[in-house]
Amino acid sequence: MIIVLLLGLLAVLGGFFLAALLYTARVRRQLRPSAEAIGLGAVTNFFDTLGIGSFAPTTAYIRLRRLVPDSFIPATLNVGHCLPTVAQALIFINLVRVDPALLAACIVAAVVGAVIGAPVVLRLPIRAVQLAVGVALLIAAALYAATNLGLMPGGGDALSLGPGLALTAVLAHFLLGALMTFGIGLYAPSLVLLSLFGLNPTAAFPIMMGSCAFLMPVSGLRFLRSDRVDLSVVLGVALGGIPAVLLAAFVIKSLPLQALRWGVVVVVLYSAATILRAATRPGHVPAGTPVSETAGDSPR
Questions:
Q1: Maximum CA extent, the chain
Q2: Residue among 61, 117, 79 at smallest CA distance from 275
Q3: How far is CA 109 from CA 70, 143, 177, in A?
Q4: Burial of 62 (0-12, 13-18, 19+ CB in 10 A)
């Protein structure tokens, strides 16, 4: 019953977010997605569905290609990857078994964290956003490297957790939900935590995907109302991402990902170095920054 309710709510939330995204893009005359953003969304969401993650590779590519200003990155990640993540969650919540109560509790906690985190991000000065994104990239690179070196926890066979561990997992997903709005991906930390607690790693997939799928439309609606978002890029990421999710989930299913992770580590570390350098450079204003932000104005 809980699973059916979650799937129904997620479908409604995803539909509402799609309508809000298209309406806002039409009003702002940003309805034409770029081919580059479509390709970016397809590649990152394809590998996201297979467990690589999408936030760090997307951030690295955006930084390398200067698709948007640095202060736009959190909104681009949370809004652009929202609908592909909803598609992932609808698939994995329906197909993978896990304790429904644990699943629902972690989702609610992550959404509450995102509700608190999104307005904080929108009020932060550019340098603070750059520092947060740079740290997020370093964390992602460390997790990718640890996975390849076999240092990540293997997990157990459990499909549920005891009361104490379940409460800890819920509180952790509250924090992870808030960090998601800063551009720090939830997938890897959630998988590590739940595996350490003895949960079957496969059972962690609906929890981490469901948490993101519910929190991203909620935080995304706040980002949509801000000036720190380019909807032509966002639409491209979403448009390329949804069919890529379906392809990865139902056709490809798995690939040898170790070599790809090492490549991602190199690119992500380079991107982290450049954004942290920009954040700590005296008097530096990133290219493409709106004039209102250089004066420290918070977005509307």
A1: 56
A2: 61
A3: 28, 23, 7
A4: buried
The DSSP annotation for 168-191 comes to HHHHHHHHHHHHHTTT--SHHHHH
Secondary-structure breakdown of the chain: helix, strand, coil percentages, each rounded to the nearest 5: 75, 0, 25
Q: How confident is the model at residue 117 (pLDDT cuts 50, 70, 90)?
A: confident
The two structure tokens encoding residue 31: 């309805």
Q: Own/partner pairs for 280-283, CB < 8 Å, 24+ apart? A: 280/127
Q: What does 280-297 look like in DSSP terms, one character per residue?
A: HSTT---TT--HHHHTTP
Whole-structure pTM value? 0.79
Q: What pLDDT, in 10s, does the model give residues 228-237?
A: 899 999 999 9
pLDDT, tens digit, 9 for 90 and up, residues 192-210: 888 888 898 888 889 989 9
Q: What is the residue type of 6? A: L
- Could you give the angle at the alpha carbon of 177 between the alpha carbons of 148 and 231, nearest 5°? 95
Using a 10 angstrom Cβ sphere, with 0-12 exposed, 13-18 middle and 19 or more buried, the burial of residue 84 is buried
pLDDT tens digits, 20-60: 999 999 999 999 998 999 999 999 999 888 877 788 889 88
List the one residue out of 170, 257, 175 whose CA is nearest residue 207.
170
How far, in Å, CA of 210 to CA of 92, rounded?
Answer: 8
Cα–Cα distances (Å) from 65 to 10, 36, 58, 78, 192, in that order, read 33, 10, 11, 19, 31
Q: Are 29 and 232 in contact (CB under 8 A)?
A: no
Contact (CB, 8 A) for 194 and 206: no
